[in-house]
Amino acid sequence: MSPVPPLIALMRPKQWSKNLLVLAAIIFVGKAGDPSAWPPVLLTLLGMCLLSSSVYVLNDLMDAQSDRRHPTKRHRPIASGAIHPTQAAIFSKALALGGVITLMAVNIPAVIGGAVYVGMQFIYNIVAKRVAVLDVFVISLGFVLRAVMGALALDVRISGWLLLCTGALALTLAFGKRRSEFLSQEGNETRSSLSQYSQKALDHLVASSALGSALCYGMYALESPTGRAHPGLIFTTPFVFYGVCRYVLLVFRDDNLEEPETLLFRDPHIWVSVIGFLIVAILAMTGLRAPILE
To answer: For the whole model, what pTM was predicted?
Structure first.
């Protein structure tokens, strides 16, 4: 069998959807219509995809033994024996080197941001993934850092409001995933933090973080300097609220909820919410007016 398919699987390309948060800055600083702004942002996106894949390969190397006892993770390339650990280690280093070189082509702050991301992943794997709630918060900080990376690429300031919204939404997604893992009991052998949760606690954490993310974005669209300068952003809130509500419905309806990044590609309601949000946000930041609100 060709080694190409296992290597691609090892990179976890579905997880790259998380790195799309790098594009948040170019949209919300109003530079989406500036052709010169896209190259550094797209290079940063590529660099983050390479770095994140390098970390995923390293994670699989560290967790290979426990992954073999997991009903679905045992099919991962290293755990299944499709890729030798030595080959995987070399591949991880190559991906990391490619990510660093790509970010160097952007600017030094982007390289520093990439280094912080990798450092956070080490903290997660060494300490945080074994501690309930802390595990989810470190994951959420990774989402926030992705949004920051877009601002670093453009050498612009990004609203603290937007970072708060990103973090709150990431908490919602991560707690939803933890709840699914807890109910299915599929992750207890490979994710030690699950034993510290309870279903009741996870139910409340999902609901409260979902409410917080919706409220944070509503406040951002209305009261932040960006929102006041671009009143049309208020028209993005229905897409955010609907997407959050749809996700909460799926969390509580389906005990075996898919990975958030897989759900993004398979649920048409969330697809419509994301696409509608992006279209209206770009329009709002590039001139869509809301006279009735001004």
So the answer is: 0.86
Residue 281 lies in a domain: yes
From its phi and psi, is residue 289 left (phi > 0), alpha (psi between -120 and 50) or beta? beta
Q: Which of 112, 136, 158 is the last residue of a domain?
A: 158
Cα(72)–Cα(94) distance, rounded to whole angstroms?
27
**pLDDT tens-digit map of 74-117:** 888 898 888 999 999 999 999 999 999 999 999 999 999 999 99
Range of the domain at 80: 16-158
Q: Measuring CA to CA, which residue among 159, 177, 44 is closest to residue 101? A: 44
d(CA 13, CA 31): 27
CA distance 108 to 284: 31
Whether residue 115 lies inside any domain: the answer is yes
